[in-house]
């Protein structure tokens, strides 16, 4: 299937550069994936679309302060580093900007005490580097939240790029569908009888990388660490046994649940790494509904949503969203696909 089928035009004015003052006041587009019918609401009214006993599956992964600024030893050139994942000891996979300015064995000075050395350069601006100290204290003292590249506003409260239920640290990007939930909304969902189940998927910055292959089937998906414990599994299974719906909050929750079904034929407690790539033709086995933001053209996220709701339905919904002045991407508005 050609990647150009998942392209669309989006003028810059639609890309949200900051969050709304109230998390749950974002617009909500409700898409019926069977009929293609669309209606519009406000996210605060989300409980109206759920029934008692339905289970809402959320990704509790917390964004690391893994954006590090430094200067190249010798030239003083400004270097930006996004720490992606640990390889061993103090060696990490990172994204370096601008990557053309560094070569092994360049040293990047973070402070008088901390630095890292470039060991190997890879594609897409990635590199393997070695820090001279465990990264925990470096993140705490010098790290910043790594906002997506399309957000040009640096003056954002870092807490707004975390979900209110963020728990264990591990992500380089936020599970953005969850950013719309407020404490008050969670209370209203529980009063309605909706069950909340948690899992974790540690999101990498590759989530923003567009598919570069002409045929989507040739795309190699990045891998991400996930976990879910047995207590949360029981909530999901109980809902299914009662004939209730499983609603995934975000494509990241979908990835975990569908990975489990693909590997074990059931939702079960587990932790590991997934590189599942979901595209049209995939048969969903774990979820009934999805809450998701509006995604970048040619992205694996848009492809996944199209697999769930139908490509034409999704692109039609995106066009209507533009007509209704919806805000797109991480700090943008939201869809409920049922």
Beta-strand residue fraction = 25-35%
Could you give me the name of the CATH homologous superfamily of the largest domain? Answer: QueA-like
CATH class of the largest domain: Alpha Beta
Give, in order, the helices and strands: EEEEEEEEEEHEHEEHEHEEHHE
- Determine the mean pLDDT: 96
Poorly predicted spans: none
Question: What is the name of the CATH topology of the largest domain?
Answer: QueA-like
Rg for CA atoms: 20 Å
Distance between the termini: 25 Å
Q: Provide the structure class.
A: alpha/beta
Domain count: the total is 2
Please provide a brief summary of the model.
The relative contact order is 0.21.
Give your account of this protein's structure.
This protein is α/β, with parallel strands linked by helices. The chain has six helices and 17 strands. It has helices at residues 135-142, 183-192, 230-241, 251-264, 300-309, 311-323, and strands spanning 27-31, 38-42, 55-59, 62-63, 67-72, 78-88, 91-97, 107-109, 115-121, 126-131, 169-171, 195-201, 224-228, 246-249, 270-274, 289-293, 334-337. The protein has a nine-stranded mixed sheet with strand order 2-1-17-16-14-3-12-13-15, with helices on one face. The model has no long low-confidence stretch (mean pLDDT 96).
């Amino acid at each position: 299937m050609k990647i150009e089928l998942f392209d669309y035009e989006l003028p810059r004015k639609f890309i949200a550069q900051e969050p709304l003052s109230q998390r749950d006041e974002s617009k909500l587009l409700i898409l019926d994936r069977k009929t293609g019918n669309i209606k519009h609401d406000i996210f605060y009214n989300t409980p109206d679309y759920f029934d008692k006993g339905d289970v809402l599956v959320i990704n509790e992964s917390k964004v690391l302060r893994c954006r590090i600024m430094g200067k190249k030893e010798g030239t003083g050139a400004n270097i930006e580093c996004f720490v992606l994942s640990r390889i061993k000891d103090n060696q990490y996979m990172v994204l370096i900007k601008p990557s053309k300015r560094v070569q092994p064995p360049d040293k990047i000075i973070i402070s008088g005490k901390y630095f890292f050395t470039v060991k190997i350069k890879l594609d897409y601006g990635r590199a393997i580097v070695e820090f001279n100290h465990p990264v925990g204290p470096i993140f705490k003292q010098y790290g910043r939240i790594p906002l997506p590249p399309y957000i040009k506003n640096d003056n954002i409260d870092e807490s707004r790029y975390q979900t209110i239920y963020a728990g264990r640290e591990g992500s380089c990007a936020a599970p953005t569908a969850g950013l719309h939930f407020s404490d008050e909304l969670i209370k209203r969902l529980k009063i309605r009888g909706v069950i909340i189940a948690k899992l974790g998927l540690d999101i990498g910055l590759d989530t923003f990388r567009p598919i570069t292959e002409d045929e989507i089937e040739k795309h190699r998906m990045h891998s991400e660490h996930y976990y879910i414990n047995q207590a949360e599994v029981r909530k999901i299974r109980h809902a299914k046994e009662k004939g209730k719906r499983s609603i995934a909050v975000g494509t990241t929750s979908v990835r975990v649940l569908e990975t489990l079904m693909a590997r074990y034929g059931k939702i079960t407690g587990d932790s590991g790494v997934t590189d599942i790539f979901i595209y049209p033709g995939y048969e969903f086995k774990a979820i009934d509904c999805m809450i998701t933001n509006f995604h970048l053209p040619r992205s694996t996220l848009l492809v996944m949503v199209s697999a769930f709701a139908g490509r034409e339905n999704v692109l039609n919904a995106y066009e209507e969203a533009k007509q209704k002045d919806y805000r797109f991407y991480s700090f943008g508005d939201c869809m409920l696909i049922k």
